[in-house]
Write a structure and sequence with these properties.
The strands form six sheets. Strands 6-3-5-4-8-7 form a six-stranded mixed beta sheet, with no helix packed on it. 18% of the residues lie in helices and 26% in strands. With 440 residues, it is an alpha/beta fold. Bound molecules: adenosine monophosphate (AMP) and magnesium ion (MG). Magnesium ion binds next to loops.
């Protein structure tokens, strides 16, 4: 235990969740990943609601169901350019015995929409795609299927009633629940809201997620490196993941291996953020002070260590209902555990009710011969090979290999004590939200 930890902290450490009470320095007992997620989700509640203009609605989460205030289409309408007629008038039409209909000139696009001018016997109205149909008309004949003779048309074949006829409300019926609370607003949702005349949209507030990187060796990307130092990349990866998940990252910067400074940063971020993610300093080494810093702030530890790799040291905690998720500083470990632990948490804070992770299976493109006594999440990319979903493994799989996370969209869940995996084996994967297009 670090000498800078006061006596009271030592006592707190002993009581902390998962620690064996007889040996302070022993590792806390790891929990199963699913248990950790469950504990986190208990605190992942929406952070608030508000209203937003439709132009800013894309990607936001609906905080209320949307019921259609009107029918779509709002009136019976024509699906094509042609003539609206009464099916009974053309029932006997043949080439030898054509039916002549008189064109009602006053019923055309623009003025037939008032619904007052009714089509009479043996009359036709010129209509275009999307224009309202006059009362009385129950069928539309295509422009090219009739012969126009001055103010008359000649019809040579019958059509059943309501062919080429779009009913009011056939797309979306007035009163129908058309969008559901907890859905992420996609481009089509935006269009539907506009079509229904809804310009102000009820949404959940976007959670603010603070990101703190810990380690004496870390340097901001725009500063000069001294020997032994490295750039802080986790802040950037995690902030980007947070943004991709739809939340607002607050990049709180780096803080050295000093318990008081870490504690101060956490206390500061607890004031402005809805959730905190830290990386680094969460193993049980002498310089891994994040746990102690949390305890000094009266934070409740939910779990510390997960029975998986990479990212075993992950810690989940809560203070005043706000989640704090602490991840290993190893870049691939931080990436993997962010996706497994923090994305479900962020989704919950955003008001999304379904899991952002899809669990499915895929066929291994490569062999993976290393075996492990621990559950292992390998990084990979999926692709289709003649209709079969396959997953290509990143070349190097060590927890500190940042390159293994590049365009990674699948975590391959390899159970503890698995035998070596041969190419062609079907494996369980966690599909991550796609990170877009890459070029091999
Ligand atoms: P730690 O979890 O603090 O033991 O760090 C594990 C490894 O990750 C060490 O090699 C650190 O230098 C590295 N590391 C920690 N934090 C970061 C960071 N923010 N960006 C890049 N590498 C980091
Ligand atoms: Mg460290």
């Amino acid at each position: 235990m670090n000498s800078s930890v006061p006596q009271s902290q030592e006592a707190a450490l002993k009581m902390g969740s998962g620690f064996r009470s007889d040996r302070d320095k022993s590792s806390p007992q790891p929990v199963q990943l699913e248990t950790a997620i469950e504990m986190i989700l208990q605190y992942a509640q929406p952070v608030g609601t508000g209203k937003i203009g439709i132009r800013s609605a894309l990607g936001r989460v609906l905080s209320e169901d949307i019921h259609a205030p009107v029918n779509l289409p709002p009136f019976n309408r024509s699906p094509l350019d042609g003539y609206a007629v009464r099916s009974e008038d053309i029932a006997g039409a043949t080439t030898d015995n054509p039916v002549l209909l008189e064109i009602r000139k006053e019923i055309t696009t623009g003025n037939c929409g008032n619904g007052k001018v009714e089509l009479g016997k043996n009359q036709a109205a010129i209509v275009m795609t999307g224009t309202p149909l006059p009362p009385g008309a129950d069928v539309v004949i295509k422009l090219e299927d009739v012969r126009r003779i001055e103010q008359k048309i000649e019809v040579v074949s019958p059509l059943p009633a309501y062919s080429n006829y779009c009913f009011a409300g056939e797309d979306i019926r007035q009163g129908e629940r058309v969008l559901s609370r907890g859905s992420v607003i996609d481009p089509s949702s935006v269009g539907i809201l506009a079509a229904l005349g809804i310009s102000v949209v009820p949404v959940y507030r976007r959670p603010r997620v603070a990101i703190i990187s810990n380690g004496d060796e870390l340097v901001e990307v725009d500063k000069q490196l001294k020997p032994g130092q490295i750039f802080d990349s986790n802040s950037y990866t995690i902030a980007s993941c947070v943004r991709q998940a739809g939340a607002r990252p607050i990049m709180a910067g780096t803080v050295g291996d000093n318990m008081e400074l870490i504690a101060r940063k956490i206390a500061e971020m607890l004031k402005s953020a809805d959730m905190i993610i830290t990386t680094g300093g969460v193993s049980v080494g002498d310089f891994d002070l994040v746990r102690n810093a949390l305890l000094s702030q009266g934070v409740k530890i939910l779990f510390h260590r997960i029975a998986m790799r990479p990212g075993t040291p992950a810690l989940g905690a809560v203070k005043n209902g706000k989640l704090i998720i602490c991840l290993s500083g190893n870049q691939a470990a931080a990436f993997v555990t962010f996706h497994l632990l923090a994305t479900p948490a962020i989704a919950g804070l955003m008001g999304i009710t379904r899991s952002p992770l899809t669990i499915t299976t895929a066929v291994l493109h490569d062999s993976y011969l290393k075996t492990s006594t621990q559950r292992n999440f390998l990084r990979g990319r999926t692709f289709f090979d003649e209709g079969v979903l396959k997953v290509k493994l990143a070349e190097k799989q060590d927890p500190g290999i940042i390159h293994s996370t590049l365009y990674c969209n699948a975590l391959i869940d390899v159970p503890a004590n698995s035998a070596a995996l041969q190419a062609g084996t079907r494996v369980k994967i966690f599909l991550l939200p796609s990170t877009g297009m890459w070029q091999n």
